[in-house]
Design a protein that fits this description.
The complex is a heterodimer of chains A (about 400) and B (about 240).
Chain A: E1 2-6, E2 12-16, E3 28-36, H1 39-45, E4 56-57, E5 62-69, E6 81-84, E7 87-88, H2 94-97, H3 112-118, E8 124-125, E9 142-145, H4 148-151, E10 153-154, H5 161-165, H6 170-180, E11 188-192, H7 196-207, E12 212-217, H8 220-228, E13 233-236, H9 243-250, E14 258-261, H10 272-282, H11 291-299, E15 305-308, H12 320-325, E16 329-332, H13 337-349, E17 359-364, H14 368-377, E18 384-388
Parallel strand pairs in A: 11-12, 11-14, 12-13, 14-15, 15-16, 17-18
Antiparallel strand pairs in A: 1-2, 1-4, 3-5, 3-9, 3-18, 5-6, 6-10, 7-8
Chain B: H1 18-28, H2 33-40, H3 43-51, H4 54-64, E1 84-91, H5 95-103, H6 105-112, E2 117-120, E3 125-131, E4 137-148, E5 152-157, E6 165-173, E7 180-188, H7 193-204, H8 207-224
Antiparallel strand pairs in B: 1-7, 2-3, 3-4, 4-5, 5-6, 6-7
Helix pairs in contact in B: 2-3, 6-8
The chains are: A alpha/beta (about 400), B alpha+beta (about 240).
Chain lengths: ~400, ~240
């Protein structure tokens, strides 16, 4: 089959690779109908998250049609049109039983690296480094989905691919981030980053009862989407002296009730700290540029909540004193998609959420390297590239 | 990166690539601090490596054993130091059920298949075969010497094994709704001299990894009925480097 393969830093190519097969009894094989880029892919494409190997098939946000199932698969059947969360989960372990799906104990076949660096290993992901399991990803004609009964969600008739594709990752991630904020009537939620995840977090915050949402980004087209699609107020951080001060002014001096970081380790910023981060990252002295996260911490009102969706490795100059002295609650996780997909499908079915506007650029799978290039550089107002095999 | 990142169908034995391992470990640590330090082989470099993260260094010590030469761990000609490894894991099933699973011959063979081929000759005896890289197999038989159903199982290699060893698995109820805490303990007494060294290098350079993997594989089998695998995976070309 044809698949998008990583061949080194910033070197993606579409190649011929072996077709996936049913290996374990709970596996299914999907014929991918659509897949999309994700900002967290950029971290290993740019070389900031290690443990990639040449020839790795990437992509963790996808949907498709079931073409084959293993002999223990009970619910999912051939011909089903399904959307698949990016984390592979077993459904049986303590973490899955407690809705903490991305922490699944039974889907990372190579747990040693994470055990050494995180303390405990997490669930496996499709197409996202060998530390996260080394599974082949979804930017391909076909993909193997382990534990299919837990990980494939049937798409109701009448919904287009674009409407449900992002329920694989961006939408549940954003929704989880908003849920972490423990939103009360009257709350103001600030969201750093107006990409796919950030926009979904903004819309989710309103769905969960927020009164105001404030988006922070620098790209005019993204800020416009935040206003038009999510109903957020916006701050272009390149146009203000201090995001933290502007947020204070906008909230009567308090600061937002909760702050969501939807940026992660390759943040851009303006000041001295950004230059410092940039230099250290370039020298590989640390992996993370933490400008967005630092702003979120400083901006958050006393006793408020910090919700972290951006992906991080290690970071220095982390203002823990601000978190501690202001009594902030920190909530974070990789997305527990399996918890949220059913309710998000319901929102989409009822017309309360339609993420299809995130699709700004469509490509055949063969042009995926170009699609990633445009996505990374945000050329032509690209929010998300989607690939059709 | 062989020993750590490979399909579990391939034996873990003697597939250690020091440079790759250290590279992997260090980059995960957040940049090349550790690599830089280790490459410089100087006091400053070592300090730099250690300073990169005390906590991470501790976490990696187990992994770094992989890369250490057995000669560093014993005096020339002396009896090889006994490698003894113990790890625990929590499994969401009752102790009785786990004990029964462990006693089913086919299951144990699956659990250990990442480094050894097991065949059960009787209720008491198990035959172990570990294949080395040069087509040389190492084989031994173990006999169950203590059996407390639902609680504990202890085995020892029979007289005359080239690589005398003992093992113990213990099942203890975990608090709350966690199920059972399972502890696996393996003890090897390699002979001294060149043979002992070969055995160590080939098999016991990674005892930590073997035990850890075995427990995780047992857990997945018990909780899900299968062991996670990337076997026959379209990802990663044969022999591809780890970055």
């Amino acid at each position: 089959m044809r698949a998008l393969c990583w061949n080194g830093i910033n070197d993606l190519r579409v190649e011929n690779v072996p077709d996936p097969e049913i290996v374990n009894p709970h596996d299914a094989i999907l014929k991918v109908t659509m897949s999309t880029t994700c900002g967290s892919d950029l971290h290993f494409i740019d070389g900031y998250i290690p443990t990639m190997r040449e020839g790795d098939v990437i992509g963790h946000e996808f949907m498709g049609e079931v073409v084959e199932v293993g002999h223990e698969v009970k619910k999912v059947k051939k011909g089903d049109r399904v959307v698949v969360p990016s984390f592979i989960v077993c459904g049986n372990c303590w973490y899955c039983q407690h809705d903490l799906y991305s922490l699944c104990d039974n889907t990372n076949p190579k747990p040693e690296v994470q055990q050494a660096t995180f303390g405990q290993p997490t669930a496996g992901i499709y197409g996202y480094t060998h530390a996260f399991g080394g599974y082949a990803g979804g930017h391909a004609q076909y993909v193997r989905v382990p534990h299919a009964d837990n990980d494939c969600f049937l798409v109701p008739d009448g919904l287009k691919d674009e409407q449900v594709l992002f329920l694989s990752d961006a939408a549940p991630t954003g929704y989880m981030g908003a849920e972490f904020c423990n939103i009360h009537p009257g709350d103001t939620i600030a969201v750093w980053g107006a990409g796919g995840v950030g926009l979904m977090a903004m819309q989710s915050a309103f769905l969960l009862g927020a009164e105001r949402v404030i988006a922070i980004d620098r790209f005019p087209e993204r800020l416009e989407l935040a206003r038009e699609k999510a109903g957020a107020e916006t701050i272009d951080y390149t146009q203000v002296d201090s995001v933290v001060e502007v947020l204070r002014e906008m909230t009567g001096g308090r600061g937002p009730d909760a702050c969501i970081d939807a940026v992660g380790m390759e943040a851009h910023g303006m000041g001295l700290e950004y230059a410092y981060d940039r230099a250290k990252q370039a020298l590989h002295l640390h992996t993370d540029r933490g400008e967005a996260l630092r702003q979120a911490i400083l901006a958050c009102r006393k006793g408020g909540t910090l919700s972290i969706l951006g992906v991080y490795g290690v970071m220095d100059k982390f203002p823990l004193g601000s978190i501690m002295n202001k009594g902030l609650t920190v909530r974070t996780a990789q997305q527990h998609g399996q918890k949220y997909v059913p309710r998000l499908l319901e929102h989409v079915r009822k017309g309360e959420l339609d993420p299809s506007y995130l699709v700004t650029h469509r490509f055949p799978l063969e042009d995926a390297p170009r699609g990633y290039e445009m996505f990374k550089k945000k050329e032509d107002g690209c929010v998300r590239s989607v690939f059709i095999p | 990166m062989k020993a750590l990142v490979q399909d579990e169908a391939t034996p873990l034995t003697a597939r250690v690539d020091k440079e790759q391992l250290e590279k992997m470990a260090s980059v995960v640590l957040g940049g090349a601090l550790l690599t830089l330090g280790l490459q410089r082989r100087s006091l400053g470099g070592t300090v730099m490596a250690l300073a990169s993260s005390g906590l991470l260094y501790r976490g990696l010590r187990g992994l770094r054993q992989l890369a250490s030469n057995p000669r560093d761990r014993r005096e020339e000609g002396a009896q090889t130091k006994t490698p003894s490894v113990e790890h625990a894991i929590t499994i969401g099933k009752p102790a009785d059920e786990l004990y029964r699973l462990w006693r089913e011959p086919g299951n144990l063979a699956q659990v250990m298949s990442h480094f050894a081929e097991l065949s059960t000759t009787s209720a008491e005896y198990t035959h172990w075969r570990v294949s080395g890289p040069l087509g040389q197999d190492l084989e031994w038989d173990t006999r169950i010497v203590e059996d407390r159903p639902g609680e504990l199982l202890r085995w020892e290699s029979v007289e005359g094994a080239l690589l005398p060893n003992q093992g113990l698995v213990r099942f203890r109820p975990a608090p709350g709704d966690w199920g059972t805490e399972v502890t696996l303990h393996l003890d090897f007494q390699p002979p001294g001299g060149a043979l002992g060294e070969a055995v160590l290098t080939r098999l016991l350079a990674v005892p930590d990894l073997l035990v850890n993997r075995a427990l995780r594989r047992f857990k997945s089998l018990a909780e899900t009925g299968e062991i996670p695998t990337t076997g026959r995976n379209p990802s990663a070309r044969e022999g591809a480097h780890l970055h």
